[in-house]
Amino acid sequence: MHPLTSETVAIYRILDANLDRAREGIRIIEEWCRFSLDCSTLAQTCKEIRQTLASWHTEELRNARNTPDDCGTSLTHPQEEIRHSPQQILHINLARTQEALRVLEEYGKLYDPLMGSQCKQMRYQIYTLESHLFATSPQEKLRSARLYLVTSPTDKIYDIVKAALQGGLPLVQYRNKEADDTIQIREGKQLCELCHEYNALFLMNDRADLALAVNADGVHLGQQDLPIATARKILGANKIIGRSTTNPHEMENAIKEGADYIGVGPVYETPTKPGKKATGLDYVRYAAKHSPIPWFAIGGINADNIKNVIQAQAHGVAIVRAIMAASDPKSVTETLIRYAQ
To answer: Which residues form the Thiamine phosphate synthase/TenI domain (predicted)?
Structure first.
């Protein structure tokens, strides 16, 4: 057996280091897919990539490792010591994995052309994985939503919501305060599955426990409901939590608590909130200037007055009766979405 040249040893060390880097990065992503998103498909994709990388991580490459003499082990940056959110961790490790796979693709061609080819394909898989994690994340859908349906009790709820979804509705909150838990769970599950079929978000009203039970995308809380931190413990970091607000003080508190979005209103008087004084458009204008998170104007909004709300720079609009009581929910939804853009 001939001794390895210094050039070959360098290539082996590069391959060894980047196989480690890619495997570590993809494992961090896999754990989030498994334990936070509870998505077996994405977790399985990550696992298959790890296993393919492991098959190339041979003893031949490992034996070339020389950690004590590696000048790169002492290199660091202050930003590497701080992480602010799970999303930042995912972004960093997706980039880390992509970079490592690019190195493996190029130097792998010198080791085995098949290695270079497989690493190229895995790099494309990581790009696809990244788009699944962020482009279609609940938070991304929330930010892009402009129309939000809050349901009211009716025997036709499934058909009404389905028609609205066919009209392009991106976000639904199931609200049936007087119903027993068993009814809310049954209807919640049906509506949640329906919304996901149309790639729309589904939230439960008030009850984080029921949101968890029906696999909702999150929960909407009133001022007298659970603290947001408590709801977060129940639902996990990746779920959406909204809070109703009626004035700047409540808005500020909701944002400080960590709400993902807020409701702003009631803009106009509405039987949905009996006894609640309308805030008018002044609060809408205030939210437009001061809210750093997505928000939806709500309360008595319909096709006749939605233009005024949008002109006051509402981020989005939440609707109840205008859709739930409509003779043609699909057509009304299409009209409201057109006005809300």
So the answer is: 147-323
SS (H, E, C) 227-278: CHHHHHHHHCCCCEEEEEECCHHHHHHHHHHCCCEEEECCCCCCCCCCCCCC
Catalytic residues: 175, 244, 273
Q: What are phi and psi of 92, to 5 degrees?
A: -65, -45
| DSSP bridge pairs for 298 | 318
Residue 98 to residue 105: CA distance in whole angstroms: 10
Confidence class for position 41, pLDDT limits 50, 70, 90: confident
Length of the chain: 341
The string of pLDDT tens digits covering residues 15-34 is 999 999 999 999 999 999 99
The response to whether 174 counts as a known ligand-binding position is yes
Tokens representing residue 108 in the block: 């792998």
pTM of the model: 0.63
Q: Residue 95: which residues within 8 A CB-CB, separation 6 or more?
A: none
> 244 a known binding residue?
yes
